[in-house]
């Protein structure tokens, strides 16, 4: 936490910001029970040998997350909390996903062997990339960037 900020309050603020909290009052707050979706900081412990550093344990209700969406889960948990003013620094140390939620992830429709067969590529890693910038290139320049990337296989 920032100097003078109690660690319990900082932990609670992180839990709120990453679940139902916002920096302002919004009229939609009264339309649902936020308790059902609220993250909770249930334990705080000091980091051994470090002054003013703590480990906060935060739990979230599964209803907060879209089933089968890793993107939604990480956006909710991590989101913009790393720029949160109540904190001097923040690091995600561990993430435990309950079996009930992990079972909602479908996984790929088939395995690596099917991909290798489609590509007729064996005995080496298969790599992918995203052309940057993702937006703003003309079709000609995007094509050039893709062409430069393709010889890598």
TrEMBL record:
- What is the free-text note on the cofactor? Binds 1 Mg(2+) ion per subunit.
User: Which keywords fit this entry according to its UniProt record?
Assistant: Calvin cycle, Carbon dioxide fixation, Chloroplast, Disulfide bond, Lyase, Magnesium, Metal-binding, Monooxygenase, Oxidoreductase, Photorespiration, Photosynthesis, Plastid
The Ribulose bisphosphate carboxylase large subunit C-terminal domain covers 111-153
Quickly give the catalysed reaction. D-ribulose 1,5-bisphosphate + O2 = 2-phosphoglycolate + (2R)-3-phosphoglycerate + 2 H(+); 2 (2R)-3-phosphoglycerate + 2 H(+) = D-ribulose 1,5-bisphosphate + CO2 + H2O
For this protein, the record's SUPFAM superfamilies field holds:
RuBisCo, C-terminal domain, RuBisCO, large subunit, small (N-terminal) domain
Tell me, which GO biological process terms does this entry list?
photorespiration; reductive pentose-phosphate cycle
EC nos: 4.1.1.39
What cofactor does its activity depend on? Mg(2+)
- Where is this chain's protein located in or outside the cell? Plastid, Chloroplast
Q: What is its main location?
A: plastid
Q: Its Gene Ontology molecular function terms?
A: magnesium ion binding; monooxygenase activity; ribulose-bisphosphate carboxylase activity
Record bears the keyword Metal-binding: yes
Domain (Ribulose bisphosphate carboxylase large subunit ferrodoxin-like N-terminal) ranges: 1-101
EC top class, as a word: lyase
Share what the entry says about its subunit structure, partners included: Heterohexadecamer of 8 large chains and 8 small chains.
Query: Any idea what this protein is called?
Result: Ribulose bisphosphate carboxylase large chain
Organism of provenance: Juglans regia
